[in-house]
Amino acid sequence: MTPTLSAKARAFWLSFSIVWLLDFVTKRLAEHYLWTSPPVRVLGDFLRFSLGHNPHGAMGMSFGSASRIVFSVLAVVMLALLWNFYRQSPQGDRVRAAALGLVSGGALGNLVDRWRSPLGVVDFIDIGIGQLRFWTFNVADTALTCGGIVLAVVLFKERPK
Q1: Is residue 1 part of a domain?
Q2: How many structural domains does the chain have?
Q3: How many CA within 13 A on the CB side of residue 149?
Q4: Coil, strand or helix: which one is 83?
Q5: pLDDT digits (tens, 9 = 90+) for 46-102
Q6: Predicted TM-score of the model (pTM)
Q7: In a domain, 101, yes or no
Q8: Active site amino acids
């Protein structure tokens, strides 16, 4: 008899796996194809692919020369907390599980980059207009943000009135 995964487990592992794999593949493609090229326009000047490495945290947060270690430790702690939160989630809560999978997959994707290279996390998605540009980011960052928003909405909806 083959064991079957619960709906919660399927939602978590599917979102986690897709994010981690998509993040890993896109970062390797960015490193391979963008390292010598000027920004590649995808949607005119609004969306471009431009290779960058971020040795710090989101939006340039920094702990100086300790950034790599501090952000790695924070990511491992967060992954442990997210796993515990997933395990304690109600069995049928697929939306929460998928959101936790998005956040966990994104956290692992950026953690792997920190361990792979002292240059830091690979970023390549560049959004803006003219000189007004947002911080360059990646698939993991997108998943962390979207998963975090979905998780916040789920938790807000279930809080006591």
Answers
A1: no
A2: 1
A3: 5
A4: helix
A5: 999 999 999 887 777 777 778 888 999 999 999 999 999 999 999 989 999 999 999
A6: 0.90
A7: yes
A8: 123, 141
